[in-house]
Structures are given as C-alpha cells and as structure tokens.
Amino acid sequence: MTQNKSGTDQKGQVAFLGIDLSKKSFQLHGVDAKGHVVIKKKLTSQSILAL
C-alpha cells in the first residue's frame, strides 16, 4: 500500500470512518466500500488545535 502525505492510499474514497477518542490523541481508521483501508492515522490533541 502506497501512502501519500495525508496518510491515505490510492485505492478509493472513505466509505466508513472510525474515530477513537482519548484524552491525548485521536486514531482515525477509514475504509472504502470494499473494506480496504484508505486512511490510518494517529493525531495528537495539540495537532488538532493547531489547525
């Protein structure tokens, strides 16, 4: 799987996105309509606030 800078691959668009929330970080897991992983990324609360 080849990922670009945003953490996504080239398979398709996100059909389902799961977000795991905790006090210090967020885990994103997105799959396309066929169940292939499209995005898998860990973000800190500080990086979200910087946006």
Indicate the topology.
Layout lengths: L15 E6 L3 E7 L5 E8 H6 L1
Antiparallel strand pairs: 1-2, 2-3
* Strand ordering within the main sheet: 1-2-3
Uncertain residue ranges: none
Class computed from helices, strands and strand pairing: mainly beta
Please tell me the overall pLDDT. Answer: 80
Quick one: overall form?
elongated
Task: Name the helicity range.
Answer: 10-25%
Q: What's the tally of helices?
A: 1
Q: Give the oligomer, counting copies of the same chain as homo and different chains as hetero.
A: single chain
Q: Major sheet: size, sense and barrel closure? A: 3 strands, antiparallel
Note the run of SSEs as H and E: EEEH
Q: How many beta-strand runs?
A: 3
Number of domains: 1
Note the beta-strand portion: 35-45%
Please state the CA-atom Rg, rounded to the nearest Å: 12 Å
